[in-house]
Specification:
Largest sheet: 5 strands, mixed
Shape: globular
CATH topology: Aminopeptidase
Radius of gyration: 16 Å
Order of helices and strands: EHHHEEEHEHH
Strand content: 25-35%
Length: 158
């Protein structure tokens, strides 16, 4: 199994959108899907610090990882945050996720990061098992919180 990788280019807009739709479907989040091909074509991801790495086996697109680099303000240093990692179902459980993760590790180290973080849904036991098998551990002393756009506006109007 040899994978080829490339960063998102203008030629990859439709493919990237297809991957995002597949991921949203897998996560049962299609009603929330708001990003468009035009957003991607206009550079929305890159303008906001997100990089997208596409993975191919023999020129067949099999998955992607989207990530950004952020500051660890208390500990100092940088961390990679993987917003999304997705492998098409027919390519899952064949070592491709590990290959993509290893490539993400290479990129993280090349950018000076000393850790990588991502979220993993509680219902996705296969993903949890994969994370643990890689040597990742859950961060049990903090919770993820989210303000919706509506909540942001409400807070600003208080």
């Amino acid at each position: 199994m040899a994978l080829d990788f490339r960063f998102l280019t203008s030629d990859d807009v439709e493919l990237t959108m297809r991957f995002i739709r597949e991921l949203a479907s897998y996560e049962n989040r299609i009603p929330e899907l708001a990003i468009t091909e035009q957003n991607i074509a206009d550079g929305f991801l890159a303008q906001n610090g997100t990089e997208v790495l596409l993975a191919f086996e023999s020129d067949i697109p099999i998955g992607f990882v989207a990530f950004h680099i952020g500051l660890k303000s208390i500990l100092g240093g940088l961390r990679m945050y993987m917003d999304d990692i997705y492998i098409r179902p027919s390519y899952q459980k064949k070592g491709y996720a590990l290959a993509i993760e290893r490539k993400a590790c290479e990129i993280a180290l090349s950018k000076g990061c000393d850790e990588i973080e991502w979220k993993c849904y509680e219902w996705n036991q296969d993903s949890i098992n994969f994370c643990i098998a890689m040597g990742a551990h859950p961060v049990n002393d903090c919770n993820l919180y989210r303000l919706s756009q509506e909540a942001i506006v409400k807070l600003l109007n208080k």
